[in-house]
Structures are given as structure tokens and as C-alpha cells.
Amino acid sequence: MKKTFARLAVGLGASAILLSAPVGAMAQGGPQQETRQANFGNLISALNNISAEVQALNNLDAQSIRIVTVDVDDVVQGNNVQAFNNALNRNDVTVLQNFLNNNNIPVAVEISRILNNANIAVNRVVAVNVLSGGDVIVFYQ
Predict the structure, then answer these.
(1) Which pTM value belongs to this model?
(2) pLDDT, tens digit, for every residue of 1-26?
(3) What residue numbers bound the domain in which 25 lies?
(4) In total, how many domains does the chain have?
(5) CA quadruple 117, 119, 123, 124: dihedral positive or negative?
């Protein structure tokens, strides 16, 4: 159950309410690791809206986002695995992977850096969910 949170900006505490688990106390300073939780609905929605999520990433400021990486196995556990597989097979996750691999915009670079630091290859990313307030959930297998 490894979920990694990299804090890139201070002061976005209100957006934490949008996620299903509370945020721990945050220290001032550089990137911080924290545990967060996403839910099955976030994952399915993100898979079914890959193009919209990539567009939302394009509109973010890399200096004011929070990125949460979530292992799909942790979210799918106890839920409808077939619904996940259907959504995964129905949507082209390579659009998202190509955005992260082949894009020099700061948001894509920052997400790739965080994935690299967590030893998660971009080709394992299946979805992102951009939430209001700058939180970005990156789902990977």
C-alpha cells in the first residue's frame, strides 16, 4: 500500500478536503512525503476522461500543485475489478503517458520527476485526476 505525496506548495489546505483521507500536518520548506488516499470513483472518472485530464494538466502552474501517486491495486481492492478493466481497455492511456514523456511544460516535468523519484516508470501510469486547488492524483499499476 504505497502511496506517495510530494508537497510542492504551502497553503492549499482547503483542496485537501476533496480527497477521501485527511492530510497530515505539513512542514514548511521543500518537498514533503505524506500519505493520501484516492478512491475508486476518482480512478474510473480519470480513466474515462483522459483527454480532459491532460488538458487540465496543461492549465496548471507547476509551482502550486500537489502530486499524489496511488497504486491502482490499492484502490481497486474490494471494488469492481471488471469495471476498472473495462475502463482501462476502453481508453487510450498512451495519450497521458506520451504527455508525461514528451512534454517540456513544467507540470509534466514535475510529475515525471516525482514518478522517477518514487521509481515509477511513466509507462505504468494509467490515469491522472486533476482536482480543484491544484491536487493531482497520478494512478499507476
Answers:
(1) 0.73
(2) 444 433 333 222 223 323 333 222 22
(3) 3-140
(4) 1
(5) negative
